[in-house]
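Final report, closing paragraph on structural work. Over the funding period we assembled a curated collection of sequence-structure pairs, and we close with a single example.
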Amino acid sequence: VEISPAPLNRGEKLFVEDLREYYNNNTAFFADHELYLLRNLSKGRGIGFFEAGNFHPDFLLWLMHDGRQRIIFIDPKGIRNIGFDDPKIRFCETVKEIEARLRGSDPTITLDSFIISNTPVATMQGLWGIDKTAMMTRNIVFQVDDRDKYISQILTEKPYAVQS
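Its predicted structure, as stored:
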């Protein structure tokens, strides 16, 4: 039996629910912003990035405002088994290189990428030996620890911004 697309896992479902709640609670922000969320197809059929170890982010989010579009690649996941220098984690840098190549053909597009960690900050600090601020420089946001602000960090703050 094949289910397509695969059902959302707990972290993905929580992200979609949190995004919906943020949308419903921030009508002033969305009065002049359009928001679109797409579930990426699986490897071999969806959007993947060879430059990042054939990374296929789970979601593509479009945020449109004033004739500009911001495309955000989002991947909710546990990160305890991947390293800080993993291509998925560094994709926030790789996507900026891709954006620079697109600039000549369409300067209205901004590309960003975020990992939504469902692994707690304290666990990752112990495993990676770095603090939350360092993790956030690679656009890692924390779903459980920062449940009240991680969606805002993705949608409204400049990439690589650090919030305590």
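The CA atoms of residues 67 and 108 lie 7 Å apart. Strands lie at 34-39, 59-65, 68-77, 109-117, 140-142. We thank the funder for supporting this effort.
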